[in-house]
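Changelog note: in this version the structure field was regenerated for every chain. One regenerated record is shown below for reference.
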Amino acid sequence: MLYHLLYPLASSVHFFNIFRYLTFRTIYATITALVIAFICGPWIIRKLESLQAKQVIRTDGPESHLKKMGTPTMGGVLILISIIVPTLLWADLSNPYIWATLFIIAGYGLVGFVDDYKKVVEKNPKGLSPRQKMFWQLLLAIAAGVFLYTVPGFSTEIYFPFFKWLHPDLGIFYILFATLVVVGASNAVNLTDGLDGLAIGPVTINAGTYLLFAYIAGHARLANYLQIPPVQGAGELTILCGAMVGAGLGFLWYNSYPAEVFMGDVGSLSLGGGLGMLAVITKQEILLVIVGGVFVVEALSVIFQVGSYKYRGKRIFRMAPIHHHFELKGVAEPKIIVRFWIITIIMALVAISTLKMR
């Protein structure tokens, strides 16, 4: 909005020419997201408390979690506001990739909001059924995939790090692939959201990593030099990524141990879906497995645990997702959280290093 209002004035006032630069708008989108989180955070937490939107703690989980009973949840609403408003203010709103990503973030946020609201406000422990949640996630992801497929010039090829010659073209089946990436990322982040700050830390690091990928993909000369697929218009996503980083840091202010508020499904589903869309649009879908390695391991731990118990009658971990396994082994919650952040930083650096290995 500010871009459309102020950049046209550059012809008469040279100062406004600064709005043409992605770096300037990204920095201020990040700052705007932080300011919104700091200003709105206390009010939203009080509002959630007044609605009795308090987290339900599993009695079969780690005993240390019982003391978290009564902590307000649905704090993901703060994250959504802190992402969407700065993006609308600082991004070029004629860019289709901005709208596609916001569509997934807002859509998945709405699905998570309905699920959380039923559970914690209406006191319906079932919330949305897994089948209902998956239906809406798939529907929204397919719609976004179809939209991207119709964007002129958008590639349906998949690019593999380390193998610059390997980029199969899926054609119309790319829609299904993109759907898998978005839905998979969303649910992986959702499974990771079990400790104070455990999910938002890696999400913020992932968003910062994809900020770099988006900038390079949108810069034709840089993309060609680094031998990654250029995506015209993808650079504008650096602003949305910056907003995600700012929103993540702002939410972490309240969500760090011991948490004053939990993000709930409204936050975890939307953030995961947003990361999936960023990976798809920047043509770095496979790298998401590396960048989001913590999310992948968390999701796989659940899959392996359920599969092992179903077919062998034995559990692999003391409890899944895997962060609960470490809790039950006696590792302190803050130590698990920080170590997962460190691992995420390492994985992000490995992913960035692939830019010079193609």
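Spot check on this record: Residues 22-50 form the longest helix (29 residues). The mean pLDDT is 92.
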